[in-house]
Design a protein that fits this description.
Elements: H1 13-43, H2 49-52, H3 58-93, H4 98-113, H5 116-126, H6 131-156, H7 160-168, H8 173-203, H9 215-224, H10 232-263
Amino acid sequence: MTTTTALYDVPGRKARARHRWYGIAATVVLLGLIGWIVYLLADTGQFEAEKWRPFEYRGIQELLLDGLGNTLKAFGLAAVLSLVLGAVLACGRLSEHRPLRWLATLFVEFFRAMPVLVMIFFVFVALKVQPLPALVTGLTLYNGSVLAEVFRAGVNSVERGQREAAYSLGLRKTQVMAYVLVPQGVRAMLPAIISQLVVALKDTSLGFLITYEEFLQAGKLIATNLNYDLPFIPVVLVISPIYIGMCMLLSWFANWVARRERRSVKTRAAEVAQPGPTDVLSGPGGRG
């Protein structure tokens, strides 16, 4: 028998078996694709010791570590500034003052539609700013505009009754926002916030186009100085797992924060004892 819910039909025994075979087939195809790629790399000699020996040199290791540090520096600055800018713009978008709301909307829509690389080049070339500030400025303007919409959507996702109940208690708008709407909206915002921060982390690689000495720029310098065929492939095989690991670490941190928030005393529902048969309300004169 296939049971039914209000949203979808729960798969029955045959459907579950069919889905299991779909999963097995997709896994086999994925493993075959990975095996084919590994075969091509081995066939072109990319796993030979000669092509990996340069990574044992201390100078190359220091170059990679310096590039990684510069990448994390740019990402840290861009992430903090993007969160601050996004919060400010979200407040403007949620403002009751029409001119402020229109100004914030114009700012968000303009910089959200503008390509990140164009903004970075404009700040670097037209304004003649150093590579690190130019990269951070471009990332901040774009990601801050996107996060502003994330914050606004998260606040608006809270049920209207929560806002009305807070106002009925005499709270001001800032208090309603700080104590009621934002704490509840954070749960809806968190996945999108982390996703956008991962985008900002990957976009730091655009810094090599303006000669910023970040991780990808370090890999490019190493590859151009290696004297064998296809020197970029070993460099990519070294750099890519590190980028993927940083993104996975950021996602793990977000999941840890979400679990910690769910266990927090402030977000946990208070337990109310069930009334017993002898619990009565005392009226005038102490009678139930």
